[in-house]
Specification:
5 strands; Rossmann fold; alpha/beta; binds 1,3,4-trihydroxy-5-OXO-cyclohexanecarboxylic acid
Length: 143
């Protein structure tokens, strides 16, 4: 399988940013872990991050057009604001799992609502960075 792991705004600062909430692991650590797991299934993962909503939308369409099999997506704060990303995901066939490192339901009320979860396969929240691996294993094992 070919999997895209997409990360939204501020996740480029993972490891430095509010470590009491998000921990000390960086996107590079997560990528290495995902590559390690994917290899065991003869699969590949590509990792992308952008702080820009339109760039994320363009990459999702590009993934669909290039025949990527599944998308693991941490949309960051766009989860709670972006109708544009919701419309994008609603309009593609590539399955998307929404991942959050922190448990958004334990945090501020504005994080409790996701515009994206209803158009995703599911939402993983609060499992720390393992949430990415959980999403990956779900896709790889259901293939
Ligand atoms: C996050 C949760 C969001 O509410 C927040 O805006 C983030 C990170 C998480 O991974 O826990 O940027 O998506």
């Amino acid at each position: 399988m070919k999997i895209l792991c997409l990360n939204g705004p501020n996740l480029n600062r993972l490891g430095k940013r509010e470590p009491e909430i998000y921990g000390y692991e960086t996107l590079e650590h997560i990528e290495a872990q995902l590559q390690h797991v994917a290899k065991q299934f003869d699969s590949t993962v590509s990792m992308k991050q952008s702080n820009t909503e339109g760039q994320l939308i363009d990459w999702i369409y590009e993934a669909e057009d290039q025949g990527i099999d599944a998308i693991i997506f941490n949309p960051g704060a766009y989860t709670h604001t972006s109708i544009a990303l919701r419309d994008c995901i609603a309009g593609i066939e590539t399955p998307v799992v929404e991942v959050h490192i922190s448990n958004v339901h334990k945090r501020e009320a504005f994080r409790h609502h996701s515009y994206l979860a209803p158009v995703c396969v599911g939402q993983i929240t609060g499992l720390g960075t393992f949430g990415y691996e959980a999403a990956l294993r779900m896709f790889l094992q259901s293939n």
